[in-house]
Design brief:
mainly alpha, hydrolase, metal-binding, protease, globular
């Protein structure tokens, strides 16, 4: 088997879970918004399970591709956010929370489905079994990582929106203003700060602490229940 074919087969064990994870995550936000009274996503054609409608050139294609090519120890990606008119949600605070948690909850459900499939799928040829086993294991990890990452309490992540919804009005206003700068703060905290401190001889694995270790605990928790 040529190296190119081996790479494609190996990459597919990540690409398939990424497409399912980010597509269903974003679609879930749209379905939850419609449930709470906002049909913006539906009118814009984003209540769809077609991955093409949710693909973000950077988050769904470039970042996962770079992580694959550089043989990163984990894969990460995101889709184009589903538009939600939060002022149309009713009741508003509960609606914001429901829309926010719908995405990470969907990722947890996908991880559970992957665990069940890993346990109950019939046996195929060794090659197919290896491919399916690898893909389902990747799906479990990826979905748990996405669920934990998105629930970090920093706007515009889903956890940040939950925090905004449950905070007193003065605090909520400050958090709402972070929607545009929160991702910059997050990238600086999780990626740039550890890089800079590593050059100074200081080890600060913030992504490991905030995301990988809680995701690992979530994987083991789900496996203990459903495996």
């Amino acid at each position: 088997m040529s190296n190119a074919i081996e790479f494609i087969i190996s990459a597919s064990t990540w690409v398939v879970p990424v497409l399912f994870a980010v597509t269903l995550h974003e679609a879930a936000h749209g379905f939850a918004a419609k449930l709470f009274g906002d049909d913006t996503a539906q009118r814009l054609g984003r209540l769809s399970l077609n991955p093409i409608r949710h693909i973000d050139p950077v988050g769904t294609v470039l970042i996962p591709a770079l992580l694959l090519i550089t043989a990163a120890p984990f894969l990460f990606g995101y889709a184009k956010p589903v538009p939600v008119a939060f002022h149309r949600l009713h009741p508003q605070r509960l609606g914001v929370i429901g829309v926010a948690v719908a995405g990470p909850l969907t990722n947890v459900l996908l991880a559970i489905v992957s665990i069940l499939l890993l346990v109950w799928l019939p046996s195929f040829s060794p090659e197919v079994n290896d491919w399916l086993g690898t893909m389902l294991n990747q799906s479990i990890w990826l979905n748990c990582i996405l669920a934990v990452f998105n629930m970090l309490p920093i706007p515009p992540l889903d956890g940040g929106r939950v925090l905004t919804a449950i905070s007193p009005l003065p605090v909520a206003r400050v958090l709402a203003r972070m929607e545009k700068t929160g991702m910059i703060i997050l990238i600086g905290l999780v990626f740039l700060l550890p890089y800079v401190t590593s050059k100074l001889g200081i080890y600060l694995p913030i992504f490991q602490w905030l995301v990988i270790e809680p995701a690992n605990a979530l994987v083991h928790f789900l496996a203990a229940i459903f495996a």
